[in-house]
């Protein structure tokens, strides 16, 4: 059955056409809306590659039923920096060497932004716990944790909040 | 597949009774895994995550009960509001999955799935929580022990929605412990919730992942409740060890892909003894 519904993605209203209603948000973002930044890997919520913000909360897009999300604000990795200029988190990942193969990076950038938004000065344990839903098989996590801690330090010393 | 998104409890209940073969979708963290893997063909879905009545919690001071709506996610249960009243439930919630899972995964979904490894279930069992259900023909509530009837089997009728749980607020130590292969994102190999009711002078314990349902160790509970020195709040080392063994004996573990029966029995012996010692630090 072909179906039609609207989603609000990165501040824009998008129409989803010819969809099956059982499709996950991950599938719809990538295959129907052409937003390829969100990665799909395990499709069972274990790896965090597909992390997006749904009404401000970090979720695995693979576990979200797309057709039930009309009226909600969805932010994907494409939406964290609409201008195309790297965010402080993205820049810190590059500088800390926290990006290797890059497949987990979009999900981890979403998770890092979400954490720093809520907890501006996280402890090492808080960073580890908050990133525990994102699997990275290259870095061994040390540089990722470093990158997040660096952003927190710089933001606090600049007195900057994100908006 | 058809998808409905009710925005009130009355609407949700009437949708479900009009189409009892529909599946209820809360956070989706169990259901979408099944749907993605093609293990479950779903004809129609009622998504209940915008039903405000299901997303509230509150305290009944007179009955000394905490009400938690079925749609309350783990990330809320972990906050001080609920954690200060039922710390064991907050601890159990913190061990579920990852932040992504805890933001959307709900107590109602844990009850709906009713896996013996469900992390909130030993807590609900040990605390004698009641599960509340609603359908167009009315509301009812059942004790947790009457709700969970087998591995992923409950006494919920297909036309009933789980609306929430009521949990007695106790004076006394309580805690949840879980054994798994790592700290994050792990399904319990064995788990235990111990709760002390100092007013009622009783110790209760619920074991997870060591039987088809959550195991309450009635015999061990009665025995240890009679051995605790309630005026000193102390218990001897020998009794702590014996309590562990009695709880292990009550478990009905099996060998499966996650562990062996022997390991699980030993694990709950250790967890039960350790929790009892934490509850009563004095020997
Ligand atoms: C990566 C990952 C890690 C996980 N880790 C853990 C873990 O550590 N511990 C653990 O216990 N679980 C874990 N789970 C399982 C799952 O997250 C929990 O069982 C969670 O509580 C399910 O809640 P939900 O709201 O997402 O349920 P859903 O998936 O929406 O629903 C689950 C079932 O309950 C039914 N249901 C839901 N709400 C109601 C209601 N109000 N009335 C009637 N029926 C209802 C649904 O129809 C469905 O059958 C994990 C899952 C994933 C994907």
TrEMBL record, chain A:
Keywords: 2Fe-2S, Iron, Iron-sulfur, Metal-binding, Oxidoreductase. GO terms for molecular function: 2 iron, 2 sulfur cluster binding; metal ion binding; oxidoreductase activity. SUPFAM superfamilies: 2Fe-2S ferredoxin-like (SSF54292), CO dehydrogenase ISP C-domain like (SSF47741). Residues 5-80 form the 2Fe-2S ferredoxin-type domain. The keyword Iron applies. InterPro entries: 2Fe-2S-bd, 2Fe-2S-bd_dom_sf, 2Fe-2S_ferredoxin-like_sf, 2Fe-2S_ferredoxin-type, 2Fe2S_fd_BS, Beta-grasp_dom_sf, Diverse_Oxidoreductases. Pfam families: Fer2 (PF00111), Fer2_2 (PF01799). This is Unannotated protein.
TrEMBL record, chain B:
Keywords: FAD, Flavoprotein, Oxidoreductase. It holds the Pfam family CO_deh_flav_C. Residues 1-172 form the FAD-binding PCMH-type domain. The keyword rRNA-binding does not apply. GO terms for molecular function: FAD binding; oxidoreductase activity. SMART domains: CO_deh_flav_C. PANTHER family: XANTHINE DEHYDROGENASE SUBUNIT C-RELATED (PTHR42659). This is Unannotated protein. It comes from freshwater metagenome.
